[in-house]
Amino acid sequence: MLFIFSCILLHLAFLTIAQTDFCSNDVGNYTTNSSFQRNLNSVLSSLDSNTQIDYGFYNLSVGQPGPDQANVIALCRGDIGVDECQNCIRNSSGKILQVCPNQKEAFGVADTCILRYSNKSIFGVMEEKPVSILVNVVNATDVNQFNQALQTLMSRLRSTAASGNSLRKFATGNETAGFDTIYGLVQCTPDLSEPQCDECIAGAIRVIATCCDDGQLVGRQGARITRPSCNLRYEVYSFFGFTPATPQLPASPSPQAPSVPPPPPPAEGKKRNNARTIIIIVVSTVSVVILMISCICLYLRIRKPKEKAETGDETITPESLQFDFSTIRAATDNFSEENKLGQGGFGSVYKGTLSNGQEVAVKRLSKDSGQGDLEFKNEVLLVAKLQHRNLVRLQGFCLQGIERLLIYEFVPNASLDHFVFNQARRAQLDWERRYKIIGGIARGLLYLHEDSRLRIIHRDLKASNILLDADMNPKISDFGMAKLFVMDETQGNTSRIVGTYGYMAPEYAMHGQFSVKSDVFSFGVLILEIVSGQKNNCFRNGETVEDLLSYAWRNWREGTGLNVIDPALSTGPRTEMMRCIQIGLLCVQENIADRPTMASIVLMLSSYSLTLPVPSQPAFSMNSSTYQSDISSSMDSNSRVTNSSEAKTEALPLSANEASITELYPR
């Protein structure tokens, strides 16, 4: 009985571990009442009051980019509820500030959550160190059999977690090992890409075999390995609760892919259950008392900042985003021609270098918007809250007199049209990269349509509005600023059409009606352009002149879809390319209801088990004389439309895009 009791204590220690904190001096320290401390206290207190996030992942920033900006990531275990998650993060916030009183970078590991902050950028960055390791010292009965089953389990969970979406990358399961059943859990911070998550978990799994001087993890019945970007845990008993489905993913439309319910936890002996129940009740009672005292102290400490947050935005304020005009003027060398990246319909774009060495793109807006300063700030705040790896991030703004500047992250590889339509550069876009670009654009649009706080409709999605970072990852640009200049719109309808010939859905081009399906249409055109390497405007095909949609539809219908594929794509899976052509044709159907949602498209791109519907004929020929006549008569004198065939982008090192019209409205 004593042996059983001591083993249960070891197991229980994993369930209620004390928080482990790692304080780093690599990025420097801060002083009392410094800007960084104020920003850090503000962002940590906002975690406690954030009721918008119910999926256990928080990535927030406060302060201007630079040494005083506080960036925070908090991640709760995927099987716990919102209340338990917030309690864990609240306690971790208080504890980590006590253990690391003046470090600008720290990492805390608690029972059901992790918390890290830094003044450097940590979003979308895989971090492997420091590592927290907890070991169950009891050996498995058959070490070889146990390790083999453990590797099988971890490999399966690793793949499942890595393929999760931008809200949750989490997986649980079990595997039989002789007389034992191994229960496992793996998790990544959802801001990681699928390869990053896979690599992080793989490294954590390797720790099992390589850790410690005597290899003390090998053959142990349980361990917990926690890195800043991922963690894993395994035991010979069920330690996790019911695992909810990954949020925001649509139900599969295919009857061939039924959902599989999670396996029920196995029954355990009465004696062991009773002992564990008694201990859990005792420890939980003590923990609740300590938690109540901690909550009272923490509430008293953060009450004033929290009350301030309730009157405005709890994470980002206009003051934290506003730059001095002199700072931006110095960064762009007084907006010199040498730093000019391009000219758009709503202003010029310049490259700038801030005093800390950070490169930014500065859009100097035209001076005829007629909008008030307060209104401008409020709408900038809405866009600044949009944080996704496939969106160009707004870093801040500047207001001085009639000057209005928008400061974005700098994206070095120009825009997609500089590559896919360029005979010399398109060779750099092999199929793997093109497919990655298609998937990234889809995930960015899904975030705008369904995952962001406000539903965003882009309305000017095109190749020149897709920027490529140093790793050729796509970032959607101009996804919100045009709303700052257009005040006569109503939800779903507009008297002012802004867009680009060839990408506009017919209901928007003809009648000014827009919805998320308008963006789906534009995305379909983009897919066909990326696969074919052809612009959507008219091109000569032997004796005939066709537009891209008609050409793709005719070849797909006649079974000659391979003709649509870019000849530069000499390698790559043809079935995957043909699948993308079919998805593109589904997106450009005339009937709005027939077009898939972005959630369905993301699922189509990631799951080959789904049978795709048969598309109907595209809406219209983009550059026919009938279309030109109809759209011209439907637009008023205020309309702004650009023709993609007339865009001169090849001479520009970075895309000079027309600002888009974007509708933002509460869900």
Question: What's the SSE blueprint?
Answer:
Elements: H1 2-15, E1 20-29, H2 35-49, E2 57-62, E3 70-76, H3 82-99, E4 103-109, E5 113-118, E6 132-139, H4 143-162, E7 169-177, E8 180-188, H5 194-210, E9 220-226, E10 230-235, H6 270-310, H7 318-321, H8 325-331, E11 340-344, E12 347-353, E13 359-365, H9 373-384, E14 394-400, E15 403-409, H10 417-420, H11 431-451, E16 454-457, E17 466-468, E18 474-476, E19 498-501, H12 506-511, H13 516-532, E20 539-541, E21 544-546, H14 548-557, H15 574-587, H16 598-606, H17 625-634, E22 640-643, E23 663-666
Parallel strand pairs: 19-22
Antiparallel strand pairs: 1-4, 2-3, 3-5, 4-5, 6-9, 7-8, 8-10, 9-10, 11-12, 12-13, 13-15, 14-15, 16-23, 17-18, 20-21
Question: Nutshell version of this structure?
Answer:
The chain has 667 residues and is α+β, with helices and mostly antiparallel strands. It has 17 helices and 23 strands.
Give your account of this protein's structure.
Keywords: ATP-binding, Glycoprotein, Kinase, Membrane, Nucleotide-binding, Phosphoprotein, Receptor, Repeat, Serine/threonine-protein kinase, Signal, Transferase, Transmembrane, Transmembrane helix. The chain crosses the membrane at residues 278-300. This is Receptor-like protein kinase At4g00960 isoform X1. It comes from Populus euphratica (Euphrates poplar). This protein is 36% helix and 20% strand. The chain is an alpha+beta fold and 667 residues long. The chain folds into 4 domains: 32-123 and 274-311, 2-Layer Sandwich (Killer Toxin P4, Chain A), CATH 3.30.430.20; 129-239, Gnk2 domain, C-X8-C-X2-C motif (Killer Toxin P4, Chain A, 2-Layer Sandwich); 316-410, Phosphorylase Kinase, domain 1, CATH 3.30.200.20; 411-666, Transferase(Phosphotransferase), domain 1. The protein has a 5-stranded antiparallel beta sheet with strand order 1-4-5-3-2, covered by helices on one side. Strands 6-9-10-8-7 form a 5-stranded antiparallel beta sheet, sandwiched between helices. α1 (2-15) packs parallel to α6 and α4 packs antiparallel against α5 (194-210). The model is unreliable at 1-17, 249-272, 301-314, 481-491, 621-640 and 643-667 (pLDDT under 50).
